[in-house]
Amino acid sequence: MAANNTTRASAPPPPPPLADLDAKWDACYDITLRRFVYSSLTGAFSALLFFRSPASRWAAIAFGAGFGLGSAYTDCSHIFDVSMPRLPLPSDVSMPNASSSPSAASSHSEV
Predict the structure, then answer these.
(1) Is this prediction's pTM over 0.90?
(2) Contacts of 48 (CB under 8 A, 6+ apart)
(3) Which of 10, 13, 51, 95 has the highest CB neighbour number within 10 Å of its CB?
């Protein structure tokens, strides 16, 4: 009787990878569509309140739409566990924390 309880309590097998990928794409499409629409509507509402010229109003709507698409892109990259690529720094630019090194500290103390 104890053996029956352990077989019932076992977790179901994980879904196949394709189904998991489909769920991620569905979530990404949902987030993108919602954020695009909501931020465009927010831009349109604020454009009606604050701007008079049609060009300024369209610019506010476009800014809202771009903001929504950008935030959806960021969340979709988190859903797919894809980190943003880090571009290498040019050779003449140093890292901000390089000033805490002992050689940099001694050069600043001389001045």
Answers:
(1) no
(2) 57
(3) 51
